[in-house]
Amino acid sequence: MKNPVSEYKYAIKLFFDEDSENLVLAYINALRSKGLLNANFIHEQYQPHISLAVYPELEQEYAEKVLQILAARFAQFLHHTLFFC
Q1: Contact (CB, 8 A) for 11 and 55
Q2: Residue-level pLDDT, tens digit, the chain, 85 residues
Q3: Residue 74: which domain range?
Q4: What is the rounded distance in angstroms from the CA atom of residue 71 to the CA atom of residue 49?
Q5: Which residues contact 31 (CB under 8 A, 6 or more apart)?
Q6: Cα torsion for 43, 78, 7, 37, to the nearest 10°?
Q7: Tens digit of each residue's pLDDT (9 = 90 or more) over 64-82
Q8: Distance between start and end Cα atoms, the chain
């Protein structure tokens, strides 16, 4: 089954600090080792994150305004910059 989100070119993602990222990866590996996770679902280069939005197209000026609003609203949760991927 094809993942329609994989065809989207842009995403707004929040990434974890190193300790939290390692914890998420440990859970992923435990699920995979027990056969509870499709081996193709999460590949080895996967970086744990929370996707706030995905877009097939993106208007840069609008996106920058949205990011500024999100960063101001959730500043207490953010230790890293929000990235466009």
Answers
A1: yes
A2: 556 666 778 887 888 889 989 999 999 889 888 988 876 667 767 888 888 888 888 888 888 888 888 778 876 665 554 444 4
A3: 4-84
A4: 16
A5: 37
A6: 30
A7: 888 888 778 876 665 554 4
A8: 23
Q: Are 83 and 13 in contact (CB under 8 A)?
A: yes
Please report the DSSP string for 17-76 in residue order: -HHHHHHHHHHHHHHHHTT-S-TTTS-TT---EEEEEEESS--HHHHHHHHHHHHHHTGG
CA–CA separation, 27 and 38 (whole Å): 14
Q: What's the total number of domains in the chain?
A: 1
Which positions ≥6 away from 9 have C-beta within 8 Å?
A: 55, 56, 57, 58
